[in-house]
Request: fold
Amino acid sequence: MSSVIAKPTARPVTPLGILTKKLEAAVQEINQRTDLPAELVANIKQAWRLAAGLDPYIEEYTTQESAALAALAETTATEAWGEHFTEGTTVRPLEQEMLSGHIEGQTLKMFVHMTKAKKVLEIGMFTGYSALAMAEALPADGLLVACEVDPYAAEVGQTAFNQSSDGAKIRIELGSALETLEKLAEAGESFDLVFIDADKKEYIAYFQKLLDTNLLAPEGFICVDNTLLQGEVYLPAQERSVNGEAIAQFNRTVALDPRVEQVILPLRDGLTIIRRVNP
Ligand SMILES: C[S@@+](CC[C@H](N)C(=O)[O-])C[C@H]1O[C@@H](n2cnc3c(N)ncnc32)[C@H](O)[C@@H]1O
Reply:
């Protein structure tokens, strides 16, 4: 049986979220002070307002998520992920912050519509929020193959998919993503759109596999999540975590690969869009 907890506040995991929190702390600090120049105080407060207002504004004016997606986000936020890992219910340390959410889900949905994709591959499904968002945009005969290594997260996702009219378009592949990619490539499968969002240390391997095989359709696109890794990629290298260094190397690898062109969108924690140069 799933163990749930009171909905905890998600910690900031994007450059903007972290910046906003730091500015908020600075504003609290300067509110205690009377000795600071008025212009400095006004500038810091204006910087905080600019940063703090952006995400809520984008949320308000972006099409609302479906009831199925809202319910899945709620379920994911109230699962006791910390306990699940210590008790061995999950094979990996998972957390609610992994879920991409409303704005990124809606963006991915738009990409499926814009590319008219019929086959989508997701590498790193977690509880299935981005998978279901993309499936909602697929035609009735579309297919989304979702790779996930954690059986418990996959089960939460499958339960949500069963409750959505779009869930039948999703096929979960449980296991290591690299092994699944090998299997899919051997089976001659090919995808119009691929979303990479699993182990940051394996991003380069996923990318190479997609391009070295026919897994990425000739006119296909790859979307890659967390390519700003909380700002670590552009902050001093000696301050980077293992994942920060892995993403910095991934970004360099993509930038140096003559087979592709790419753009990093500063959406949430960074979303890179990649296509082959000469399909
Ligand atoms: C950031 S979460 C994915 C979030 C999801 N795309 C969403 O938007 O809700 C990353 C997921 O990748 C899975 N994962 C990590 N390493 C993996 C691997 N080697 N193979 C398959 N899945 C993996 C984790 O278990 C986790 O559920």
